[in-house]
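Methods, example record. To illustrate the input and output format used throughout this study, we show the complete record for Nucleoside ABC transporter membrane protein. The sequence lines were provided to the predictor; the line carrying structure tokens was produced by it.
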Amino acid sequence: MDLSAINPILLLASLMVAATPIILAAVGELVVERAGVLNLGVEGMMITGAVCGFIVAVNTGSPLLGFIGAAIGGAVLSMLFGFLTQFLLSNQVATGLALTLFGLGLSALMGQSYIGIKAPEFPDWHIPVLGDIPVIGPIVFQHDPMVYVGLAIVVAVWAFLKFSRAGLILRAVGENHEAAHALGYHVIRVRMLAIMFGGACAGLGGAYLSLVRVPQWTEGMTAGAGWIALAIVVFASWKPMRLLLGAYLFGGVTVLQLNLQAAGMAIPVEYLSMSPYLATIAVLVIMRAGRAPGSLGQSFHASR
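The corresponding predicted structure is encoded as:
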């Protein structure tokens, strides 16, 4: 085993890239759950966003349009979940699981004719001056735009929930939807908007995998990323900034195990591949999650 082959600067830079799809999916789900809705269909929305974004990018030659298409695809699928759970009052857990299975099947069907095709290139940004700073520059300031978009969304969600009136209403709906309804707030409208935002973010996370990290379409390429995003929301105690820590932990372990494989570490590849998921489980067991929103997973009956 040759550990000298592992470049620590490249390792840390790769960590940010590996964490980005998890950040995008998790921050969307965080908003959904703060509104009192439990959507377990993140994996399905991510894989749908991955195939929609890939199809749009390949046919238009524009990765930017691909990401927009992915956000729309994820949002449309999330609206199906929203309609079933908020209007027809179906069970949120069962509907979310069904959404994941539906998304996996739909994406496999849509992507059949795109297997083996390379996505159009999505260039990195080399931020002037900052990108030339030794050590820090290559780690932080030489990534593709979606890395920074993901971070910007996290900061925006934090500010929205903490300082805006709309964020206060969303949190009120998530804590006690009956009280929020009594105060005159439209609970279903707030929840549907949160669900659409969560779907769009999950779609962006999926498209990041198919347009940047791979970049090509393969069936099931999310490989459990949606479930990791769900776990990280709980780990973060439904707080946006803490969510970054969980995503970077998962991304760091993912990149490290790939580097250890390349260095020829004398551990079976299967065990190394399991390590990011085992690390996530270990952290969830060790760290005690904060209190969940009071109305999480509860359906709202407008007739009350």
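Annotations derived from this record:
The longest helix spans residues 8-34.
Residues 164 and 302 are 25 Å apart (CA to CA).
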